[in-house]
TrEMBL record:
Pfam families: DUF3572 (PF12096). This is DUF3572 domain-containing protein. InterPro entries: DUF3572. It comes from Xanthobacter aminoxidans.
Length: 108
């Protein structure tokens, strides 16, 4: 379910956002150069990628990687038929809640 279908309810929104993140990871993995850069920038290895993918915040990290590279974002959005703003919205939905005690805070 694409995020632009405006799913109702928090669970449906999270599920749709997670689908966007899974699509983004597939898009990254489909190209060797993108995958190597993703692994290098995240500090992951092929050996621990599967374990990392099981973490709750993994999807937000994948989408952050895509959002930090405009040409990559535009290529991903075009291939999947998404508006780039929907990728940003999916990231926001999947991002961990703001911790008021954190030293570094997410921009609002």
């Amino acid at each position: 379910m694409p995020i632009q279908d405006k799913p109702r309810g928090l669970k449906a929104q999270r599920d749709a956002a997670q689908e966007v993140a899974v699509s983004a990871l597939s898009f990254i993995a489909a190209d060797g150069e993108r995958l190597v850069r993703f692994l290098a920038e995240t500090g992951l290895t092929p050996a621990n990628l599967r374990e990392a993918a099981g973490r709750r915040d993994f999807g937000a990290g994948v989408l952050a990687f895509v959002l930090n590279d405009e040409p990559l974002l535009l290529a991903f959005a075009a291939e999947k038929g998404l508006d780039p703003r929907h990728v940003a919205a999916a990231h926001e939905i999947l991002s961990p809640p703001i911790d008021p005690d954190a030293i570094v805070r997410r921009p609002m």
